[in-house]
Amino acid sequence: xxxxxxxxxxxxxxxxxxxxxxxxxxxxxxxxxxxxxxxxxxxxxxxxxxxxxxxxxxxxxxxxxxxxxxxxxxxxxxxxxxxxxxxxxxxxxxxxxxxxxxxxxxxxxxxxxxxxxxxxxxxxxxxxxxxxxxxxxxxxxxxxxxxxxxxxxxxxxxxxxxxxxxxxxxxxxxxxxxxxxxxxxxxxxxxxxxxxxxxxxxxxxxxxxxxxxxxxxxxxxxxxxxxxxxxxxxxxxxxxxxxxxxxxxxxxxxxxxxxxxxxxxxxxxxxxxxxxxxxxxxxxxxxxxxxxxxxxxxxxxxxxxxxxxxxxxxxxxxxxxxxxxxxxxxxxxxxxxxxxxxxxxxxxxxxxx
Amino acid sequence: xxxxxxxxxxxxxxxxxxxxxxxxxxxxxxxxxxxxxxxxxxxxxxxxxxxxxxxxxxxxxxxxxxxxxxxxxxxxxxxxxxxxxxxxxxxxxxxxxxxxxxxxxxxxxxxxxxxxxxxxxxxxxxxxxxxxxxxxxxxxxxxxxxxxxxxxxxxxxxxxxxxxxxxxxxxxxxxxxxxxxxxxxxxxxxxxxxxxxxxxxxxxxxxxxxxxxxxxxxxxxxxxxxxxxxxxxxxxxxxxxxxxxxxxxxxxxxxxxxxxxxxxxxxxxxxxxxxxxxxxxxxxxxxxxxxxxxxxxxxxxxxxxxxxxxxxxxxxxxxxxxxxxxxxxxxxxxxxxxxxxxxxxxxxxxxxxxxxxxxxxxxxxxxxxxxxxxxxxxxxxxxxxxxxxxxxxxxxxxxxxxxxxxxxxxxxxxxxxxxxxxxxxxxxxxxx
Lengths: 353, 432
Prior knowledge:
The complex is a heterodimer of chains A (353) and B (432). Chain A is mainly alpha-helical and 353 residues long. Chain A is 75% helix and 0% strand. Chain A contains 16 helices and no strands. In chain A, helix 3 runs parallel beside helix 11, helix 10 (193-214) runs antiparallel to helix 11 (218-232) and helix 15 packs antiparallel against helix 16. Chain B is mainly alpha-helical. Helices cover 79% and strands 0% of the residues of chain B. Chain B has 17 helices and no strands. Chain B has helices at 3-25, 38-58, 63-74, 84-89, 91-108, 111-146, 155-170, 174-183, 189-221, 229-257, 262-280, 284-297, 302-326, 333-362, 366-371, 381-393, 398-427. Chain B is globular. The two termini of chain B are 17 Å apart. Classes of the chains: A mainly alpha (353), B mainly alpha (432). The interface between A and B is large, with 46 and 43 residues.
């Protein structure tokens, strides 16, 4: 009971206190990742992690839906196919390179793919906060970074489909179709703003918990459901506004929850993992941005280091499906590596080129 | 009624119900990875209850009735899509909702209206309590003797049941009252009197139940009656009020110095209040009501609190009332329906008489005298808690009491909101 009070008070303090502390700096040096820190601190409390784990699924579903709802045909038409091709090439190459370098130290381990996918994410929020949308160069960088998450989620889907049995793959497709149609059907009924918010929330919870039961990715299912709703439902825009309006508190709770469940410890193997991840992600980012076809040489590579919440979501999605109750070292190492990368990125951006 | 919309709603509910129903039928191995989480039921319940609420609105009923009916229909005592263990696992969410509703109730009560309607609130509470208490105590044993329930032929037992059921007859559901008031955005003296009486009666019922339990215990064991526990109860109530004041002051500080994400804050505050009340052993509903009242009346931040409440109230109401509906075990209704029906009619008459008498004595407006009784018929949380305590304390006849009381509560909880909606509309204070 007192543990629960502790957690609630920590959440209140985290949400209102931490943001108050960082208000003067306009953006915290961790870009939201300070909530992970609070989660790490709370992890020492005697908590029933199994109960908390099932709470993680709806958050993953929510992130997937948020991204999917942004993939509207009209928005996509604004950029050329070659631009998408370059972003796709950049993302796929990053994933392969990170996977290769990280795999050298952890050969054959299942987590290599998850780490590669997660560390290939680039936080749009960090960059857009400091880089003004003025000038062709800046706009190119912003558009480039904004497309990366979508390519990454397509890759996550491909990896997910290849890692499950054909029956489960079929089930995943069926669930995507079912929830997309159901979502379209139901959202039409939410005339009032509050009603729509409730329907979206209920849909996310139902969808992600159903996926959890079958060991399927709520992130992927919700992402495709979001794409369908954005393009085929008259309520797509309203649904996006409703999901987006709660972004801040939900991200905070998600990060605290992940931090609590991660099982961070200070053992040397974990420290080695963190160092390796930071070096690999930084090195690959530096290499990739120097490639002329991507047109990003004008920007310091450290600006694009921050992997953001999407990285955490991709990693958590993989981790929880592979039996999160017994945490592997890679997951906490990745969380800390993400924090370190966020810190470096946001601080170098603030200093300017 | 829009028929096309109605069909769409019903189809959606059926489609939704198929998901958990199918999932529950699947053999756990080898397809299922995880045990079925109660949050699956929660997600389904949120959608199904909200949609049923929309359907209820389409046919002119309060949305709340729809939430309750959805809970009853999909709950463990009907279709069993929501299991008993799910309800148990979702208790925390339910408790948060109850704290939230109590803060809302306190926040809706303004000092100015208390000053204006204080006399009416006091007199209606008094006359209502006395009349319902006396009427139930006189007629209930008669009804139970004339129409005996299986296994209840002992007059002492009949008297014990009558004494305990009296407290349920007096009780109201503040949560239902505030939800209906909010749904119809009702404001005015009629609304204030109903809300005020409901809140005061919540404390009155606590005291009445404690006395009733002491009397019944002494009858059951044959020992002398001792009322020493009343002092302890009084202290508990006073401490709860004091804790509510402190909690209210903390909330004011938040609204003054932070004042952002007010909807998130109110949910977290509800959770904190519930946990603190549990740890210290306080009456958490009362504590939250007082906290809401303090913020509304002793600071200039009441509007900010109400804003936060209004933004988060829909999911809270949907979850709370659908879970409450799912928890109503009406499977025994078939065996006791006649007694329950007579009791419901008796209580309605007594409530009407008590309200009319109190209103007349206080010189209340005609709308209060004529229609305020409609707001005092609902029965939910507190009454259900009473049933659980009684069932546990008196195993020999507790189940008979439960069968009777739950059926009685279920009818009141279905009919009460509908009648209260009509009462609010007749009073001319609704804004929807």
